[in-house]
Design brief:
This protein is 66% helix and 7% strand. It is α+β, with helices and mostly antiparallel strands. Among the domains are: 167 residues; 142 residues. The protein has a five-stranded mixed beta sheet, with helices on both faces. A three-stranded antiparallel beta sheet has the order 4-2-6. A hairpin with a 5-residue loop joins β7 and β8.
């Protein structure tokens, strides 16, 4: 039932590995080598001898060419692996160990490594088919020609890789890459956009009304009675909640005619025997149903951005906090992170936050899921940066400018309240932490400008 969540979890791990894509490329090369040799044996040998651009030499020359290419490719593959490890080490020490995942997910690095390994494997497989005069001479001219072509392509790939690895450890490039992943997460998790700003009931009132209506339709008890009649589904392992298969939970709730309340959301740390979900009424939940509900929750060793929006936010925050540390003292990188966070929050402000109440096709309440709110994301984005920027006038000013930028995109009163709260804390921290009066005046000016924009919206 929860196969979708398991597949997404496995796919995310494969994308973050160095071995998966190179292994696929090596497997394709294995097939290609056997195909080209078979074509050489069947039809291509005589025709290839007449082509000026193809290899037309004998067995000794073909063996030397392929041997040279194979030896150089495996040497260059070792060099590429070494350069990659150096880049990973620099990124880990300067930007934090959680940045390693972004480097390992970099498709370019995986393709480069796979290119050299595949070229080495291709030349090795073709080399074994060459037969000299005493063995019934056979020279796979087409295969040798393709080997030379692969070597030339690998040379270009090496040049590009040197450029790419040099750019990949640049601070702005790393921040941009993490910000792109954050934007992708917002587009995936919040696909709906708010239309025109119309008068709508507050979230709390709308949810209460919807809950009362759903309870009336499903004849469910109130919260106190519901908890007493419920069965709590508990985790078997420690770890971070990575994925929840909402479709599987909805199907299980409909099939068993129960209400499922999700007690944890992706990104939370789960302890063994800790609560995952609450199902009521308990008399409709057998062991198989409980196991299927538990299988809809994927718990792993680390957080992932598949359903955890705050994960990418905290990656940018980590870079900014490290940049603001006394040992680094790089406010420019911190300001770049603030700019990217502002861009993401502007995008999120224009999205409709889904209700935690999920109903089936007949409108009956089936699943209650904790929703990620704009206020929670703003807290995750600004709290630690603000706390570490108390003595930095430049970053404090940029935070207030970011809040002013986001203010132009918000439409919900709760969102404006959250932004104003952070603007007040930034201004108060600057008053207490900045030694220069001029710096405090500049921060105060930006604070008043942000408040005016929040009042206007």
């Amino acid at each position: 039932m929860a196969l979708k969540a398991q597949i997404l979890s496995v796919w995310d791990r494969l994308r973050s590995s160095f071995w998966f894509l190179p292994s696929l490329m090596a497997g394709g090369t294995l097939v290609l080598a056997f195909v080209t040799v078979a074509v050489d044996e069947a039809v291509a040998d005589k025709w290839m001898r007449e082509q000026r651009w193809a290899y037309t030499g004998g067995a000794e020359g073909a063996s030397a060419v392929l041997g040279t290419i194979a030896g150089s490719m495996i040497t260059v593959a070792g060099l590429v692996f070494s350069l990659t490890l150096v880049a990973l080490t620099l990124a880990s020490s300067q930007f934090g160990p959680r940045m390693l995942r972004n480097f390992m997910r970099d498709t370019t690095n995986q393709i480069v490594l796979g290119t050299f390994i595949s070229t080495f494997l291709y030349c090795l497989l073709v080399l074994r088919t060459i037969r000299r005069e005493g063995e019934g001479a056979f020279v796979p001219h087409l295969s040798v020609t393709l080997g030379v072509a692969f070597a030339m392509a690998s040379l270009w790939v090496l040049i590009y890789f040197i450029h790419h690895v040099s750019m990949s450890i640049h601070a702005d490039e790393i921040v941009a890459r993490v910000a792109a992943e954050l934007t992708e997460s917002i587009d995936r998790l919040f696909p709906q956009r708010i239309g025109q700003a119309l008068a709508r009931p507050t979230t709390e009132r709308a949810e209460t009304t919807s809950a009362e209506s759903s309870r009336a339709q499903t004849k469910l008890p109130e919260d106190e009675d519901l908890d007493r009649a419920a069965l709590q589904i508990r985790a078997h392992h420690d770890g971070y909640l990575q994925l929840i298969d909402a479709d599987a939970l909805m199907s299980l709730a409909v099939c068993n005619d129960v209400l499922v309340r999700i007690d944890r959301r992706p990104g939370h740390y789960i302890v063994a025997d800790g609560p995952l979900a609450t199902v009521s009424p308990s008399n409709r939940v057998d062991d198989d149903c409980a196991a299927a509900i538990r299988a809809a929750f994927v718990v792993g060793r680390q957080r992932t951005p598949v359903q955890d929006l705050e994960f990418s936010v905290l990656q940018l925050v980590e870079i900014a906090v490290r940049a603001l540390s006394p040992g680094v003292n790089d406010p420019f990188t911190a300001m770049t992170c603030v700019d990217r966070l502002a861009s993401a929050l502007c995008r999120l402000a224009g999205r409709d936050i889904p209700s935690p109440l999920r109903v089936d096709e007949r409108g009956r309440l089936r699943v209650i899921a904790p929703a990620t709110t704009f206020s929670a994301v703003v807290d995750a984005a600004f709290n630690q940066v603000r706390q570490n920027a108390r003595t930095s006038a430049a970053v404090s000013i940029r935070l207030l400018e970011a809040i002013a930028t986001i203010a132009a995109s918000v439409t919900r009163p709760d969102d404006r309240t959250a932004l104003r709260r952070h603007a007040e804390m930034v201004a108060r921290g600057a008053r207490e932490g900045l030694p220069e009066e001029n710096d405090r005046a500049d921060v105060e000016q930006r604070y008043r400008a942000a408040c005016e924009l929040l009042d206007e919206t």
